[in-house]
Each structure stands twice: as structure tokens, then as C-alpha cells.
Amino acid sequence: MVGIVAAVLFFVAFLINAADISTNDAFSSTNVMLLGLMCLALHMAGVGTGWARRR
């Protein structure tokens, strides 16, 4: 699930960069890309995979 969120964030960052949309500093394409990288790192670490052991 976190990997899908990362893909969506990368796509939004690409659209902001490709369309040259002027946004404020908190929502720039670099910041959205960094959020995508954080979600990708969480996905690679196993967070949100759904393989939890339950009793």
C-alpha cells in the first residue's frame, strides 16, 4: 500500500515539474518527490505490507 502511495507522489511531482506549475515552497516538486522517497523507503522496510502475524 505504501508503494502505491509512493508511485502516486512521484507522479504528482512529475506533473508539477513537467507542467512548470508554480506552487508555494511547502508543495514544490522536490518536496513531493522526497515524500515519495520516504514512502518508498518505508515500503522497502516492510511497513504496510499486510504480512503481520496475528493470534
Largest pleated sheet: none
- How many domains is the backbone divided into? 1
Secondary-structure class: mainly alpha
The number of helical elements comes to 2
* Unreliable spans: none
Q: What level of helicity do the residues show?
A: 55-70%
> How much is the average pLDDT?
83
Order of helices and strands: HH
The beta-strand count equals 0
Rg, Cα atoms, Å:
14 Å
Q: Which of globular, elongated, flat, extended, rod-shaped describes the shape?
A: elongated
End-to-end Cα distance: 23 Å
What portion of residues belong to β-strands? under 5%
Structural commentary:
The chain is an all-alpha fold and 55 residues long. Helix content is 62%, strand content 0%. The protein has one domain (2-45). Helix 1 packs antiparallel against helix 2. The longest helix is centred in the N-terminal third of the chain and has 17 residues, at 2-18. The model has no long low-confidence stretch (mean pLDDT 83). Keywords: Membrane, Transmembrane, Transmembrane helix.
Blueprint of the fold:
Elements: H1 2-18, H2 29-45
Q: Short description, anyone?
A:
By secondary structure, the chain is mostly helical. The chain is about 60% helix and about 0% strand. It has one domain (about 1-45).
Features:
55 residues, mainly alpha, 2 helices
